[in-house]
Amino acid sequence: MEVDKKEEIASESSEEQVVNPWEVSAKDGGKIDYDKLIDQFGCQRLDESLIDRVERLTSRQPHVFLRRGVFFAHRDFDLVLDAYERGDKFYLYTGRGPSSEALHLGHLIPFMFTKYLQEAFKVPLVIQLTDDEKCMWKNLSVEESQRLARENAKDIIACGFDVTKTFIFSDFDYVGGAFYKNMVKVAKCVTLNKAMGIFGFSGEDHIGKLSFPPVQAVPSFPSSFPHLFPGKDKLRCLIPCAIDQDPYFRMTRDVAPRLGYSKPALIESTFFPALQAKNGKMSASDPNSAIYVTDTAKDIKNKINRYAFSGGQDSIEKHREIGANLEVDIPVKYLSFFLEDDAELEHIKKEYGEGRMLTGEVKKRLTEVLTEMVERHRMARAAVTDEMVDAFMAVRPLPNMFE
Amino acid sequence: MGFSKDQLLSQLQELEIDYSKYEHPPVLTVEEQAKYVSSSEGALSKNLFFKDKKHRYYIISAMVDTKVDIKVLSQRLGLGKGGIRMAPEEALAELLQVSLGCVTPFAVVNESARDVSLLLDQKFKNQTRFIFHPLSNDVSISLSTSGLDKFLQSIGRDPVYVDLEANANPVVGKDQPPDLAVYVPSNSVVVPELPNKTPSAQAPPKNVSAEKTKPVASPKPSKSTGNVKSVVQNSGLSVFKNPDKFVEEILDKTSALLLSEVKGENVEALAETLRKRLTSEFTHLAVMYKNIAYSEGFYAGTQCQPKRQ
């Protein structure tokens, strides 16, 4: 059984940082301690040698998120690469909980990375829209959550997934048949006590919540998709996600061998910090904490200038003397996520950190980079029709999925 | 018929080439090999098998920490950036007659590999001994450069040593011809493409390639016309099926036109910059184009009336 010592969620105390699918907060108003998280969860660090291996196997430069340590932890990614080298492919599984119409950049990160993985390794992808989860947790109506799922699907498609290798599904539409059979098999293996320990459920929570985890677990098993992977029960699954989703997949990995399935592998990312840098992650509930894909160039410029937490010094003289505090500076952090050019990033960090470059310049560069990204996304989004969403979500075979 | 490891080893003995042999469980990667063969026996090598767009093949054999940049290599061979890529599995089996994880300079002993170019890392010359697989990945042998050279000469090959890390930013033009172009094979080789394989079938059981005694050695013209057609058809289709190949094709043609029409020393650099900056943009556009076309077809399919009887 996967050993994780502290399965109970330390919900009340601000002594410990809290990281689970429904809450992310750092200890005492500080930063998230990722090393501690890796230790607590029991996953592995994604080190240089793995990144080099990826480069070798895919014959292309590793994605900027790998180079900058955005995707920093994994479970069994090395085994997936071993198998890939032998000619055994895998498929990708990621998802989104469609709680709001407005997507911000933090939401796009796992999708941008998954798109790269799909192209680089030439493998198929399933994307789960957990409309049922949001219906339960956010108390939305069934119709509203289904509507949001479709809207979010459009933004996801705009990230550039290939329709001949991608299957998007919403739980309300797809649960049933082979998928449901696997859900029941998984559910039989997890006691109420265990679920409460992993997810922090209590006697006050409704039974819908308790029965949800298998829904997010079973897309890791190829037999859940008989129209995609008939007869390929041993096909491996790789799940790119943010590290707060780890509990679902710890449970899944625990259960998999008992069902005779391979354990899914994971590749996990850090959280995208909020603009104002308050501990935790970007939140959809505070519009100024995030850059949205619907923001105009003017909005982006304003938000960055006004709300992005700066590590620069109070006065120009002091700044030129000491340089910026790169640890807390948000613009530099954002650039490390989205500025492709390694050399330019290094240059900025050096000049800004030693006081020769001012905050205004860094913010200006960031505004350029983000505006370009958001513009590109908007253009792609405008091209997504309802027919295209239908096509992506149709239960159909994908004959060329490994090309 | 593919050379077996025993035939190779007895050949080495006959030539009085000194080597040391290490047996171990089959290994597929350098990391695994390193567990069984320590570096005191010799320097481990990484062996890469590449193919270019005109179906010419290359083995690059290098020290493990030598940086082999495919793009740079491709330019130095005069094939433009992105002119070479890792060769497909079928080529490994057909041309080199070895299995996955077993690429080795010794593979050129096979007749089927006579048109494969072999480039060795200059840095090997600084080592006393280095380590390769003798056609099978459950054995490793260590020998000296002079031993390898002697072997290559015995099969009519001139050993070619290249500084793989030199010229990291090659500028290729009329006055600066690609420095490795002379090592591009004069003949291309046709490897019949196997039909789409399912993932489970792709795991290459070693037995299969060892037993494959199909004499692919010399693709005679009459036999190869059929193969050539199917290869061309397949690669033609993939340009339109895969957004990245599609974009590569566009940028190839654009670069070619630019280079032929505009003179000047900055033009090559410009062509490269264009390619580098536009590839990701164009691929994004191509994927959207493909998605739209598919969706329209899909929708039409749902509205399709049954054929009138």
Automatic annotation (TrEMBL), chain A:
The keyword Mitochondrion does not apply. The keyword Protein biosynthesis applies. Keywords: Aminoacyl-tRNA synthetase, ATP-binding, Cytoplasm, Ligase, Nucleotide-binding, Protein biosynthesis. One of its GO terms (molecular function) is tryptophan-tRNA ligase activity. This is Tryptophan--tRNA ligase, cytoplasmic. Pfam families: tRNA-synt_1b. InterPro entries: aa-tRNA-synth_I_CS, aa-tRNA-synth_Ic, Rossmann-like_a/b/a_fold, Trp-tRNA-ligase. It comes from the Eukaryota. GO terms for cellular component: cytoplasm. It is an enzyme of class 6 (ligase). Its EC number is 6.1.1.2. Its main location: cytoplasm. Belongs to the class-I aminoacyl-tRNA synthetase family. It comes from Brassica carinata. One of its GO terms (biological process) is post-embryonic development.
Automatic annotation (TrEMBL), chain B:
GO terms for molecular function: aminoacyl-tRNA deacylase activity. Residues 193-229 are annotated as: Disordered. Coiled coil: none annotated. It comes from the Eukaryota. Residues 24-151 form the YbaK/aminoacyl-tRNA synthetase-associated domain. Belongs to the PRORSD1 family. This is YbaK/aminoacyl-tRNA synthetase-associated domain-containing protein. It comes from Brassica campestris (Field mustard).
